[in-house]
Specification:
- By secondary structure, the chain is α+β, with helices and mostly antiparallel strands.
- The chain is built from nine helices and 15 strands.
- α1 packs across α5.
- About 21% of the residues have low confidence.
Length: 272
């Protein structure tokens, strides 16, 4: 245990030194994949109430259409970055995330590389911990979960996993798949989404409330309601090993969160 703690602290220190060096180093052009050269025409940013436009060299442009596809704020920018990170527009979005929100999506890549180095030396458990930190920096990046899954497989930690905004909720019962749907403990997933949750023992009904949205789901019933409107579930909620299990996609998307499935690592990825 002491050895692992020393190793992970060394990894974090090493990463900090590398990050510091990267910030001090001159920027160079990577053919559209890296940072812009110093003599690049100034990036212009125009903001209006109904539109956001960022111009890059040539014809590459990121507009509010890109942002609005994924929602407002930095979470939308993070997802947009995943779509264009290998294009000139990716560098622009990365700069916006860094300057406006203090989020360095490139730092997650550096941490992930460090995790690979640790795994190669046999420090698989520490590598998994470092990879989880990389995920927290870039929670919408499914490739990071895929790599984490490989580390966890080596540690014998198999099965379905669920993450909310890069964090793994503390589930009393592990998520599982039933008839093609992933069921998770409702209280843990709802609280991770900062929602209010309640349970009516008499009617065996789960109620989740967030931002004026009310979701109700009766155990064993394939009909649920969202703000009073009926919705048909592919799989009903159920009681398993003392925990109330509900379809994670239904609960999350009803509360306006995005749900992705990373097949190789068997990870449900919920982001807002």
């Amino acid at each position: 245990m002491k050895k692992s703690m020393v190793t992970i602290m060394s990894a974090v220190l090493s990463f900090s030194l590398v990050a510091g060096s990267a910030l001090a180093a001159p920027k160079e052009d990577k053919g559209g994949h890296g940072n812009a050269p110093e003599n690049k025409p100034a990036v212009t940013e125009t903001k209006k109430e109904t539109d956001v436009k960022v111009k890059t060299e040539g014809s590459a442009t990121v507009t509010s259409v890109t942002y609005d596809t994924y929602g407002n704020g930095y979470k939308g920018l993070e997802r947009a970055y995943q779509n264009v990170k290998d294009k000139p527009a990716g560098a622009v979005i990365a700069d916006l995330l860094s300057s406006k929100y203090g989020i360095d999506v490139t730092a997650s890549a550096a941490l992930s590389e460090k995790a690979e180095e640790l795994e190669a030396t046999g420090e698989v458990e520490v590598a998994a911990d470092v990879q989880k930190e990389a995920i927290k920096l870039d929670p919408a990046n499914l490739e990071l979960y895929k790599k984490l899954g490989k580390f966890l497989d080596k540690l014998g930690k198999k099965g379905v996993k669920a993450f909310v905004n890069g964090e793994e909720p503390n589930f009393e019962v592990a998520p599982f798949i039933k008839d093609g749907s992933t069921l998770v403990p409702f209280r843990a997933i709802a609280e991770s989404l900062k929602a209010e949750v309640s349970w009516d023992e008499e009617t065996r009904t789960v109620t989740v409330v967030k931002n004026g949205i009310t979701v109700k789901l009766e155990i064993g019933n394939t009909t649920a309601t969202v703000d009073g409107k009926e919705v048909t579930l592919e799989v009903p909620g159920e009681i398993y090993d003392g925990s109330t299990m509900v379809p994670v996609r239904f609960i999350s998307e009803s509360l306006k969160a995005k749900v992705d499935w990373e097949a190789e690592s068997q990870s449900v990825v919920v982001t807002e």
